[in-house]
Amino acid sequence: MAQSGRASLKRGKPSYFMSVLGVTLVLFLLGVLGWLGINAKKLMQYYKESIEVQVYLKNGINDRDRALLQDSIAALPAVKTVRYTDKEAAKKEWVKSGNEDFSEFLDNNLLPNSINFNLKEEFVDSTQLMNIKTRLQQNPIVDEVQYSKAVVGSMQRNFRIASLILLAIVIGVSIMVIILIDNTIRLAMFSNRFLIKTMQMVGATRGFIARPLNIRAVINGALSAAIATAVLYIVIRLLEGFFPGMNALFDTNLFLLLFLGLLVIGVSITLFSTYRSVLKYLRMKLDELY
User: Fold this and answer.
1) What gap in Å lies between CA 20 and CA 207, rounded to an integer?
2) Could you report how far apart the first and last alpha carbons of the chain are, in Å?
3) Model confidence over 62-82: pLDDT tens digits?
4) Contact partners, residue 209, CB within 8 Å, separation at least 6
5) In whole angstroms, what is the distance from residue 54 CA to residue 84 CA?
6) HSE-CB of 226 using CA atoms within 13 angstroms
7) Which residues contact 236 (CB under 8 A, 6 or more apart)?
8) Sheet holding 114-119, edge to edge
9) How confident is the model at residue 225, as a pLDDT?
10) Can you give the residue ranges of the ABC3 transporter permease C-terminal domain (predicted)?
11) Which of 132, 150, 251, 290 is the most buried if burial means most Cβ atoms within 10 Å?
């Protein structure tokens, strides 16, 4: 009987390898989706915080009043960065943007001094921007406040649609991941059905039978998560070689968090499926195993 048990374990080794491979592939797919989700949020934050608000100042404003206004803007909870642009700097930016140098036919620089600032991600929406604009325009040294209303409006709509699509994909893939991992583990446990039944017939308790299989499930789930994360890391680094701009998107802390998520998912589903399969074969009669 001991020889039969060892033979069953040997026959089960290929199935364990295939289960690790199958779970790894599924977790890799989920990891890719998770990485896209993380970077989609970072991209959303980047584009939102790139929206610039220009506060154009009236002519003849002294430096003290300008500095007081700039400090009051910087003190707003919604503001992330703020900078002052004088006439000469504005002219250089104007020409650098591809516009014609008007100094060739005009003696005076018509561009106004301005205080430009960017908001934090959570404050970039049409309502809050309009409130900030209204508040700033009440200041007597402010001539005009401008920002791209069309860009803000379209950005909000596009991000909302993209978020819904990504949420639908996450739900669909999550369901698929659970089903695929469960089926993979059930197929792996199928090769151990006679070993499970033999141990039961010689008087082994349910806990004694399930313990080594559950430990193997935890190890296989953790191994699959580690391999999937390593492959994902290599793929990301290879892509960064072709697209250097992706370097700015990589966040070590978020990637480690993604690994922990894959680890929990891999171990949890693998352990649950293994335990369920053990109970199934323990309840079956010997003739039903064939």
Assistant:
1) 24
2) 18
3) 889 999 999 999 999 999 999
4) 196, 199, 200, 278, 282
5) 10
6) 6
7) 35, 246, 250
8) 79-85, 114-119, 52-57, 142-146
9) 93
10) 169-277
11) 132
Q: Are 15 and 190 in contact (CB under 8 A)?
A: yes
**Tokens at 108, concatenated:** 């005076």
Distance of CA 259 to the CA centre of its chain: 12
Domain boundaries of the chain, sorted by first residue: 15-45+154-288, 52-147
Which pLDDT belongs to residue 116?
93
| CATH class of the domain comprising 52-147 | alpha beta
Count other Cβ atoms within 10 Å, centred on residue 217.
Answer: 28
Better-scored residue on pLDDT, 156 or 86: 86
**Overall pTM surpassing 0.70 (yes/no):** no
Q: What separation in angstroms does the CA of 122 have from each of 52, 76, 258?
A: 14, 13, 23
pLDDT band for 15, please (50, 70, 90 cuts): low
Rg of the chain on CA atoms, in Å:
31
Query: Tens of pLDDT along 45-66?
Result: 888 888 899 999 988 888 899 9
The CA-based angle 123-127-133, given to 5 degrees, is: 85
Range 27-30, long-range pairs (CB < 8 A, 24+ positions): 27/177, 27/224, 27/225, 27/228, 27/262, 27/265, 27/266, 28/228, 28/231, 28/232, 29/173, 29/177, 30/173, 30/174, 30/177, 30/228, 30/262, 30/265
Q: To the nearest whole percent, how much of the chain has pLDDT over 70?
A: 73
| Overall residue count recorded for the chain in this entry | 290
CA 78 – CA 139 distance, rounded (Å): 18
Task: Tell me the pLDDT tens digit for each residue of 200-236.
Answer: 666 666 666 677 778 888 888 899 999 999 999 999 8
114-119 and 52-57 beta bridge pairing: antiparallel
